[in-house]
Amino acid sequence: MASVVVAPTAAFAAPNFKAPFPCGQRWTYSHHSAEVRQALDFVRADGGVTGGTPVMASAAGTAYRFSQPSGAGNYIAIEHGGGWKTYYFHLTSYSVPDGAVVQQGQQIGITGTTGNSSGPHIHYEQLLNGVGQVIAINGVSLAPYPGSYNQRYLTSDNCGGAPAGAKYYAGSPTDFSGDGKDDIV
Predict the structure, then answer these.
(1) What is the pLDDT of residues 125-159, one digit of tens each?
(2) Residue ranges of domains in the chain, CATH in brackets
(3) Residue in 158, 152, 163, 172 with CA at minimum distance from that of residue 14
(4) pLDDT tens digits for range 95-124
(5) Taking the model in full, what pTM does it have?
């Protein structure tokens, strides 16, 4: 009787996530101790107003719109492929239709305070196969997370999407369709 050996599936490397706010802006971030997820909340620290600021896709993928009035409020989940997903909570409004393919650096919503929120901010999460991950921007972990604002800062270099005509290959974290064909963005 022949035995079958099943090799484990290799995990996809994380996309090169960028900050979820516009290029050149400086924001501070914190993690609330009551939050069980690996989430960060971002607010502006460069003299600009947080509420009404665009929220940017931190990596390319397919964006889905949701509303949870008693929790996350209006939010977007972006599926990046390879089991990776990001969340953007408490949006005042959406900037893309449900199911839209978005590029890194593309505006997906407007920062707000919908749902269970005490003020305008971007609640941001990175998940792998549904499990919250320690947030990394440009491949660098932001841990250990500060417990309050104005202890750590991040300036965005999320300055736009992939160049026109860029190709992403099947099986990569940016194979959005999962159809085994190259996706041209």
Answers:
(1) 999 999 999 999 999 999 999 999 999 999 999 99
(2) 12-143 (2.70.70.10)
(3) 172
(4) 999 999 999 999 999 999 999 999 999 999
(5) 0.81
